[in-house]
Amino acid sequence: MPQALLVHGGAWNIPDELVESSLSGLRHALEIGRSRLDEGADALDVVETVVRALEEDPNFDAGRGSRLNRAGEVEMDASIMRGSDLQAGAVAAVERVRHPVSLARLVMERSPHVLLVGQGAGRFADEQGVERCRTEDLLVGAELERYRRVRAGETVLIREEFSPEGHGEEAQGPLGTVGAVALDARGRLAAATSTGGSQDKFPGRVGDSPVLGAGTWADDTSGAASATGWGEGILRVLLTHTVVDCIERGSAPEDAAREGLARLERVGGKGGVIVADRHGRRGIAFNTPRMARGWLDDEGEIHVAIEGEPR
Q1: Residues contacting residue 301 through CB under 8 Å, at least 6 positions apart
Q2: I want to staple 291 with a disulfide (CB 3.0 to 4.6 A). Which of 11, 112, 229, 245 is the partner?
Q3: At 273, phi and psi to the nearest 5?
């Protein structure tokens, strides 16, 4: 049975100084995921483990490195989905949790709900014995400095996150929603996505990452996908469900990813998507200047990239 693993670390104006560290972070996560697949781990365990590794990496906008909202708070979103029975869990606007993706899995496995938000998600975390952390533990120096610049009036840092004109020095700081898609040796698919959200977002804003069919989708009968980018656009077109639905209708994963991006462009959306089908075939597409992404090839070799023609 073929296996597959794809990861992403954000589709945006990734500045030159973050390229090598982002590629290194993707490689590290893929190495961990490959080891878990070789051990025979379930796809759900693989995507959780991989996303946890990316949440620990301050190069990405998830867990450590999450962006601050307008009130100077870190509110994070995450979701995880199992393709065998369409079970899923998600959290939104949760604070002081180092690994939101693991909290999302607890919602799936230890509650009757799919999505918990804000203070309710925090209370659930405490009831489940999830280790809490300080807001300061989730910040990196570059992000804190960027927040201060935005609050001082440098709104160009927000406007140009996804446009070619913003590439370079103006786009400092991480904006890398992270995600993973896996197919294990027994043909099980899973997907997970985690983010700290967009720069200077209004408190309580929720993007696509915790919304099933928008940021995350998995179905063993067809495929699994994780999205990244401007959440408001991705939400409008239910990007991951759209892509997997294209596979179900007969498209190859690469074609399905492009079809999903064409739908995203209909609403002026910016972002990217990774997808794998039940046969282990892979697809990646994006319409931003750069996208941090990585995958295992058919021989299990690791590949990572940031450059490339937007697809």
Answers
A1: none
A2: 11
A3: -150, 145
How far does Cα 165 stand from its chain's mean position?
24
Mapping DSSP onto H, E and C, the string for 194-256 reads: EECCCCCCCCCCCCCCCCECCCEEEECCCEEEEEEECHHHHHHHCHHHHHHHHHHCCCCHHHH
d(CA 106, CA 109): 5
What stretches of the chain adopt beta strand conformation (E)? 4-12, 76-82, 88-94, 115-117, 178-183, 189-195, 216-219, 223-229, 271-277, 282-286, 290-296, 302-305
Residue 311 lies in a domain: no
Task: List pLDDT tens digits, range 50-59.
Answer: 999 999 999 9
**pTM (2 d.p.):** 0.91
Q: What domain range includes position 243?
A: 4-305
Residue 310 covered by a domain: no
Polymer length in residues for the chain: 311
Backbone angles phi, psi at 303, to 5 degrees: -130, 140
Number of compact structural domains in the chain: 1
pLDDT in tens, 136-169: 788 775 656 665 665 566 655 544 444 444 433 3
CA gap 288, 12 in Å, rounded? 5
271-277: strand order across its sheet: 216-219, 223-229, 271-277, 282-286
Q: Rounded CA gap, 252 and 15, in Å?
A: 32
